[in-house]
Amino acid sequence: MKRILFSLACIAGMAFLASCQTMSKDECSAADWQVIGQQDGAAGLSSEGRFADHVKSCKKAGVQPDQTAYYAGYQSGLVQYCTPLKGLSVGQGGRSYNNVCPPDLEIGFMRGHRLGSAEYSKKSEIRTIETRIRQLEGEISDFERQVKKGKLSSGEAYDKIRKRGREIERLRRDRREANRELDLISRDVDWFTSNPDAEIPPRYN
Fold this sequence. Notes:
By secondary structure, the chain is mainly alpha-helical. 77% of the residues lie in helices and 0% in strands. The protein contains eight helices and no strands. The protein has helices spanning 2-20, 25-29, 33-42, 47-59, 67-81, 84-92, 103-148, 154-194. The longest helix is centred in the middle third of the chain and has 46 residues, at 103-148. The termini are far apart. The model is unreliable at 4-19 (pLDDT under 50).
């Protein structure tokens, strides 16, 4: 048992180290640090944490990343990332914002992010409702099979099925309302896509 636990710990440790390894030795040796900084900025990654990871990755290769070049590239990458439409995309994907945008660009980015996040949340809500409906429908089918097999009386099954049927009806009403709300959000998203510099409705603030 101890050997198994030790092996699992080693595997977990290696996985953790691999997750921190941002670059190979060859990549470190041939790196254009301005380009790498630009890529990290365009991806919305935290500059301090990401650069520190690069330093760790390249230490074994005996390469010291060029911090000045990296940060110059990173700033140019942020200009690509910190846009209203990118904020929309990030929000729609359910991804969080790493507080990387400069104040003058953050306002527009966050407008898009709030709108995209609202769409993502509403879609997630609908998926949750639909999952629960399928679960309840499965339970009803299971009760019906149990009655046929004589494992459950009709009276017991009736009460259980009626209870779940009421919940399904409630969930279907919730789903209809959620879909109406999603339609409204989708219209706002379509409008915002064509007018990314405009203000979004107050309900998203």
